Amino acid sequence: MSATLERTDESAPAARSPWYSSLFVQLLVAVVAGITVGALWPDLGADLKPLGDGFIKLIKMVIAPIVFCTVVLGIAHIGNLKSVGRIGIKALIYFEAVTTFALIFGLVVGNLVRPGAGFSIDPETLATGAEAVAQKTGDGELPHTVEFLLNIIPASLVSAFAENQLLQVLFIAVLFGLALAKFGENGPPVVLELIDHVSRILFIVIGWIMRLSPLGAFGAMAYIIGQYGLRSLGSYAKLIACCYGAAALFLLVLAVITRVFAGVSFWKLLRYIKDELFVALGTASTEVVLPRIMTKLIDAGASRATTGLVVPTGYSFNLDGATLYLAICVLFLSQAVGVDLTLGEQITALLVLMLTSKGMAGVPGSSFLALSATISAIGHGSIPVAAVAILLGADRIMDSMRVSVNLLGNCVATLVVANWEGQLDRERLALVLDGKEVPPLDEPDPMASRRD
C-alpha cells in the first residue's frame, strides 16, 4: 500500500489557480452578497428563493442513485455479511451515544444560560399558536418508532428512488451489494463494473452542478435574511447566542472525539471540507453536499463501504446539531412562559427527544413536531403546546447552526467507525488532511487490498 502512496519529488508542482477560481472564495462572496441583499432589499431577497431551491433540486435528483452505487460497490468488495453488520451496529451505537450527549449538553446549557428568561409570555395570548404551527408543519406528524422502522422497507424498488427516501435506498443497496458479493464469488460480475461506470458518470454530473453552488447559496441566503432575518435577531438574540455558543462548544467535543477515536486533527478535517460546509451553510441543507462529502471521505482513506453505510444513515440517526437545538428550545419555551421544569420533567423531555429526533429527517417542520410531542409528554399544564409557535420567528435563523454541526458530526462518525473497523487508511488520511498530493484511487474501494 505504501508504494501506491509515495509521491514523486521529481514531478513539478502544479500551477496555482487564481484566487477567484476557488470555490471557497466564490461561496464566501455569494453568502456575504446574499446577506447584504436580504438585509437591504428584503422583498428582492425573498424573491430570490427559486435560485436556492433550484440548486437543491438539482442535487437531490442524483443523491439516491449515488448512494446506491457507492454502497453496492463497497459491500460487494467486502463480500462479508458479518463485516457489514458490524459497521451498522457500531455506527448506531456511536450515533446513540453522541446524540444523547448532545441532548444532555443542550439541557445543561439551557439551564445555565436560561435563554427564555425575560420573555414573560402569557400563555393565554398563544391561542392562535397551534394554527401557526399546523400551517408550518402541514398538519403532519412524526412517525412512531415502529412506523419509522417499517418505513425503512420500501413499497417497491422504484418508489424508494422516486421518493428520494435515503434509508430505503440504503436498505435496497445493502441487499443488492450482498447479493452481488455472493454472485461474484467465482469472478467479478459484469454488473459490478457497470455500476462503477454509472457511479463515475454521476459524480461528473455532480461536479457540473456544484459549479452553480455559489448561485444557489446566494439565492438561499438572500431569501433567509429577507424573509426571516435581521429583524428577528433583536428579540431572539439571547436564544440565538445560546444555540450558536453551545454549537461552538460542542465542536470542541467533536474535536476530542476525532483526535482520540480517529487519531486525526478535527481542525484539519474542517479545512478539508470547508467548501462543502459553506455550501451547506449557504443553502441551509446538508443533503446538497452528501455526494461530495462521501467522495471526499473515501478519497481521504475511509472505505467505500463504511462511508456508504455511515453517512446516509447518519442523516437520519446522527443529527447532533438538531438534537442540541431541541434540548435548548424545550427549556427556552418553558422559561418563556415562566415555568421552571423539574429534574424529572427534564429527564422525561430527554427520553422523548431521544426517540422523536430519530424520525425528523425529511419531515416538514420536524423540529416543531418534535418539540410539540415533547411538551405534550412532559404534561406540565402551564406550558401549552401552542407555545412552540414562539419559535417561528427564529427557527430559520438556526438552520446554519444545525446543518454545520450535523454535517461535521457525520464526517467524524465516518472516520471513527472506519477506524474501529480497520477500514481507515491512516497514511493516506494524514497526507490528504495536510494538503499533500496523493495518487487517485485506482480501486473502487481504497481499503479493498487490506481486507481479509
UniProtKB/TrEMBL annotation:
Q: Which GO terms describe its biological process?
A: L-aspartate transmembrane transport
Q: Which domain of life is it from?
A: Bacteria
Q: Per the record's keyword annotation, is Lipid metabolism included, yes or no?
A: no
**Location relative to the cell:** Cell membrane
Pfam families to which the protein is assigned, alphabetical: SDF
Alphabetized Gene3D superfamilies for the sequence: Sodium:dicarboxylate symporter (1.10.3860.10)
GO cellular component terms attached to this protein's record:
plasma membrane
List residues traversing the bilayer.
20-41, 61-79, 91-113, 165-181, 201-225, 237-262, 324-356, 368-392
Q: Which SUPFAM superfamilies match?
A: Proton glutamate symport protein
What is its membrane topology? Multi-pass membrane protein
Keyword list, A-Z: Cell membrane, Membrane, Symport, Transmembrane, Transmembrane helix, Transport
Q: Which InterPro entries match?
A: Na-dicarboxylate_symporter, Na-dicarboxylate_symporter_CS, Na:dicarbo_symporter_sf
Give an example GO molecular function: fumarate transmembrane transporter activity
**Name used for this protein in its record:** Aerobic C4-dicarboxylate transport protein
Q: Its gene?
A: dctA_2
